[in-house]
C-alpha cells in the first residue's frame, strides 16, 4: 500500500471532500455540489502547488486532525483557525510542511464557518461523474469523514507557492447579497418584495450545504396554491410555506415547487458560505443584465 495517504484522527462536526463539483448534470437530477467557498478552496490548492480542480477537505466550525504517512505540504484557509503540526503552532493561509507521522491539527474557526485543507497531490478518492465532491443531498461522492478514514493522495503536481501568507477576505460581519428579482416575484405582494429588499434577516442555525436559511419577516404570497416543480439554480432565493427566504447553495435540489422570488449573484455566495448563525443578512436588488 502506498504511504501517500492521510489518516483522519479527528473528523470534526462535518468534514467532507470537495472540489469544483459536478456542473452539467442538473438534467439528471444531480446537484453541482463542490466547495461552498470556491475562492478559498482554489487558494489553498495554489499554495501547495495543486491545480485548481484538485480535491481538498472542507471543515465545518471545529476543524479536524490529520496524520500523513509521508511528508506532505499542506495549506489551511477559508475560515480563520489555529493550526498546529506536532503540537507546535503553524501558519494559517500559507504552505506548511508536515513531516511523516506528525499530527496536523486544525482548530475551531475563530470567525466564519468553513475551513479548507489542501494537501500536495490532492485527495484522490474515486471520482463519481467526474468529481470527487461529497454531495449531501444526493449521496454521491465519498461519505463525510469519520475518525479513522484513510484518504489516498496523488503525487505532488508542482512546488508550493513562495509566499509567507496569502490575503483572504474575513468572514462578513454583515452579509450583503445582491439579488436579481424573479422569476416568481409576481407570486408575492408588493409589501413582501419591499420587505425582502429593505428589511434585515439573520442566518438561521438550520443552514447547511443545501441552503442558507434565514430568520426574519415572513414574505406574504399574492397567489394561493403551488407551482409545478421547475428547475432551480445556484443562488435561487426560494420561499417555503413559512415565508422565510432560503438561499440555495452547492448541494441544492435541481427542481422545486416553492416560488423563487430572486436569485443571488454568484460572486456573493462564498461569503454566504462563511456566515455563521445570527449574521445579519440584507438582500440588495440589482438590475437585470
UniProtKB/TrEMBL annotation:
InterPro entries: CT_A_B, Cyclophilin-like_dom_sf, PxpC. Residues 27-289 form the Carboxyltransferase domain. Keywords: ATP-binding, Hydrolase, Nucleotide-binding. It holds the Pfam family CT_A_B. It comes from the Bacteria. SUPFAM superfamilies: Cyclophilin-like. Gene3D superfamilies: Cyclophilin-like (2.40.100.10). NCBIfam families: urea_amlyse_rel (TIGR00724). PANTHER family: 5-OXOPROLINASE SUBUNIT C. This is Biotin-dependent carboxyltransferase family protein. It comes from Streptomyces nogalater. The lineage of its organism: Bacteria, Bacillati, Actinomycetota, Actinomycetes, Kitasatosporales.
